[in-house]
Amino acid sequence: LVEQAHDRFLATNGLNPMAFQSLKRMEEEVVAMSASLLHAPPEASGTMTSGGTESIILAVKTWRDRAAARRRIPARRPPEVVAPVTVHPAFAKACHLLGMRLRTVAVDRDGLVDPSRLLRAIGRRTVLVVASAPQYPHGAVDPIPEIAAGAARRGVPMHVDACFGGFLLPWLERLGVTMPTWDFRVPGVQSISADLHKYGYAAKGASVLLYRDASTLRHQFYVSTDWPGGIYASPGLAGTRPGGPIAAAWAALQGLGEAGYLDLTRQTWEAAEALRAGIADIAALRLLGQPHSSIVTWTAADDRLDIYAVADLLQARGWSVDRQQDPPAVHCSCTPANLPVIPRYLADLRECVDEALRRPDLAFRGDAAVYGMMARVPVRGLVRKGVLDLMEQMYGADPEAPSLSEAPALPAWGQRALDRVDRLRRRLRGAA
Fold first, then answer.
1. What is the distance between the alpha carbons of residues 157 and 187, in angstroms, rounded to a whole number?
2. Is residue 143 reached through a cis peptide bond, with omega within 30 degrees of 0 on the bond before it?
3. How far apart are CA 180 and CA 172, in angstroms?
4. Is the separation of the CB atoms in 159 and 128 below 8 Å?
5. What b-and-e string marks burial along 169-189, b requiring 16 or more CB atoms within 10 Å of the CB?
6. Strand partners, 232
């Protein structure tokens, strides 16, 4: 159904709602259904975007421009966004593109930020406070009611990034899963982003950006009135807006309905809970975060175990592995497709953990060496240079450019940096 809807609107363009009126009606209905799911008030409004990153950039741009219109930004100083360190990198990207500053606050071992610490970071230049539902690294839902109340007392709007959980957490709540309140039911929440192409099961890329007050939406738009080609108005970052993803998102919402989403969410939750239970039974592993979503993240509970070596062994058995850092961890985003294979995954995981404990040399081989080195290098500019070099190779003219898994285990620059870290560690041990 989604594929047919996408293909039928393949040649349409959402830039001009007067030219493709049926497409505009679909977008309006997607926004209305999303707003209802997230308990938005009747006066709420919003648009669809090409994905979470565009939704986030537009949210930051909107609140910056609204603050500028109200003359709340001190002259000659960049406006600021305050957020936990676990917010999506798209917020840093937005601030980079918009000439702003992102101020981040550290989180605890379970990925939760202290609301009082976050609120203390608010200053005269703060135009937006951000929290996640959930944040991606640990799957934790930030303490949104406390943050929103404090931000409102300071006159600063709050945005909730629910790109991952916007079409998952509401259904989990309806299934009886204990869930903190995070959406428009929280008075201080002024805008929410949620991706339809994740747990909305729509085609890539489709997201919604919603505002509590319809008057805020005008600050999202870009209008040019002096171009010789005529008046140009755009609701988002892109000019041409492909109609296929809009129609496909509408079809997914209409086709699945409440019963379909509840069933898919139930399977997703069963997969995540089974995975969490199995990992908890492995003594050498420790779960991170809180069980509020489909995200399952685990790290080593045994100092002898190298998580990246376990990841390499899992990958060698055919599993797709998402590696994280700070702390080193493995991250899984469960879907209904995972449910039948959870027992086999856990059996392989136990065997891989045992093998990694027996063979500590695996930490210095393959991807484990690369990821371990990159996580330990204290000068992050060196890591950034290495990633930029790799990206240049991947997107350059050379068709034989190696992928990350095929790259040399330790580039020369990385080995030099790692040697410096080891020398420093030896000196510190000697001093102690």
1. 11
2. no
3. 11
4. yes
5. bbbbbeeebebbebbbebebb
6. 224
